[in-house]
Amino acid sequence: MAPSFAPSLRFTAAMRLKQGRDFSRLKQDGQRHVFGCLITNWCRLPAGSLSRLGVVTSGRIGPAVVRNRARRLMREAFRLHQHDLAQPLELVLVARPSIAGKGFASVEKDFITTLRKAGLLKPSAPPKNG
């Protein structure tokens, strides 16, 4: 049996945006799209680079438990769909207060819709049920 070469769905430390200057640069110089419970800021990277993600949750969303859940949901949506991107990106997802109480399917749907409207997904990316 031939081995299958499925792309890795790992979200490694090298794929995280951590520096405040990276967040500021994307907010100032990158493109922006707002949809549903997410605000998306992004900047395209050269082919062959790793896509990188940063997440932002402010205190307006709710207490720490709610903010942490929002961060986990946004990271998971990115992790599962990182290989659907048309090209590598630096991406910052900002949670809006409406994310509080939403389930993963709803956050994933907003994430996919945002990327599709911004033209960041591969044309062959399958539509997600939701």
Structural summary, described in words:
There is one protein chain. This protein is an alpha+beta fold and 130 residues long. The protein has a single domain (14-117), classed as Ribosomal Protein S5, domain 2 (2-Layer Sandwich). 32% of the residues lie in helices and 18% in strands. It contains 3 helices and 4 strands. It has helices at 20-29, 64-81, 104-117, and strands at residues 31-35, 38-44, 52-56, 89-95. A 4-stranded mixed β-sheet has the order 1-2-4-3, sandwiched between helices. A hairpin with a 2-residue loop joins strand 1 and strand 2 (38-44). Helix 2 crosses helix 3. The model has no long low-confidence stretch (mean pLDDT 88).
Secondary structure: elements and pairs:
Elements: H1 20-29, E1 31-35, E2 38-44, E3 52-56, H2 64-81, E4 89-95, H3 104-117
Parallel strand pairs: 3-4
Antiparallel strand pairs: 1-2, 2-4
Helix pairs in contact: 2-3
